[in-house]
Amino acid sequence: MTNRVYNFSAGPAAIPLPVLERAQAEMLSVNGIGMSVMEISHRSAHFEGILAGAEQGLRDVLNVPDNFRILFLQGGASLQFSMIPINFLAPDQTADYVITGFWGRKALAEARRCGNINVIYNSAEGGYKSTPQQGELNFTKDARYVHYVANETIEGVEFQYDIDGGGIPVVCDMSSNILSKPIDWNNYALIYNGAQKNIGPSGVAVVFIREDMLERIPTGLHSLLDYRNIAANDSMANTPNTWAIYMIGLVCDWLKEQGGVTAMQTRNAEKAAVLYNAIDTSDGYFTGHADRSVRSMMNVSFHLPNAELDEKFCSQAESNGLDGLRGHRSLGGVRASIYNAFPREGVTALVDFMQDFSQKNG
Ligand code: PMP
């Protein structure tokens, strides 16, 4: 068996080992058909079954209501930054954006190309460590939608509640915490995700869109940028990423075996607590980035006393089988991404390494 390391990468990220093993076993002949999933027509009955299975898997594990469509698209979560305003924001209209980190800023920049934007909360001044209270949010009258990022992957800042739009459709980027806990669908009009953290491999984005939102889309959009067209074609307006969609089905099967997203939520909280505790009991050697009340269960961003030590820490960790810990280039420091598939033993191994490192380099 190949030696596997503990993979703390923010995404593409660790995929559950049983999922990789099943994909390996089915590589040459998926469902006994004598071909791999990457070799069959997306229009074949074989693939139709795989696509339907992936969709049903997501519906089952997330309890997705019937009035939401599930779409599989390409272009990652980043294309959604553009598709959302292209579909829902005309030049004379306004949307509200809540900015709590790097990805919210990226979404904002694309939306500004389409219409008016009100930034109704921005934690830039505080260094992107916080989220607003619901009561701090003053929505623009007639805003077409309000957009926020549930978990800022780089800063490790996670909303602890769902924003209530008070009638304004809520659009949310859940790329880095989808499937980590149950979703209260009553709060949302559209949820989008790059798959490469908790859902599966990169190369597919998953969009959950409430059906009434499809009716608001203007006619005449480019067909592959038009949610209504993608929905009408059941995500097969063109050739989808067949491999990634297949993998999503396997990840959902694995999640069900694990006890679903509720079990994941408990497990994730336990893993994160071990790591945050190591930071908090380090006498200030390690400093967490996010405010304590909004710490992410998925991405734990912290730093050492200086950038030189950050680098030494990450490179020594790598030599010790703890991979992918370097913080994002925009923030530096260290980031441990501990998604659903990341094992608890890996967190313990990191904590042991942190204690050893701080003793030797204190
Ligand atoms: N949103 C969030 C919260 C992310 O973490 C990322 C990627 N790390 C993106 C959007 C961009 O995703 P993609 O690379 O799939 O475009």
Provide tags for this entry:
362 residues, alpha/beta, Aspartate Aminotransferase, domain 2, Aspartate Aminotransferase, domain 1, seven-stranded mixed beta sheet, three-stranded antiparallel beta sheet, 14 strands, binds 4'-deoxy-4'-aminopyridoxal-5'-phosphate
Offer a concise description of the structure:
With 362 residues, the protein is of the alpha/beta class. The protein is 35% helix and 16% strand. It has a seven-stranded mixed β-sheet.
Question: How would you explain this protein's 3D organization?
Answer:
This protein has helices at 17-25, 45-62, 76-88, 102-111, 211-214, 227-232, 242-257, 260-280, 307-319, 344-360, and strands spanning 6-7, 68-73, 94-99, 116-122, 146-149, 151-152, 157-158, 170-173, 190-194, 205-210, 287-288, 299-303, 322-323, 334-337. It folds into two domains: 18-256, Aspartate Aminotransferase, domain 2 (3-Layer(aba) Sandwich); 259-361, Aspartate Aminotransferase, domain 1. Helix 1 (17-25) crosses helix 7 (242-257), helix 2 crosses helix 7 and helix 3 packs across helix 4. The protein is globular, with a radius of gyration of 21 Å. The strands form four sheets. Strands 2-10-9-8-5-3-4 form a seven-stranded mixed beta sheet. A three-stranded antiparallel beta sheet has the order 11-12-14. The chain has 362 residues and is of the alpha/beta class. It has ten helices and 14 strands. The model has no long low-confidence stretch (mean pLDDT 97). The protein binds 4'-deoxy-4'-aminopyridoxal-5'-phosphate. Residues 10-11, 76-78, 103, 149, 153, 173, 175-176, 194 line the site of 4'-deoxy-4'-aminopyridoxal-5'-phosphate.
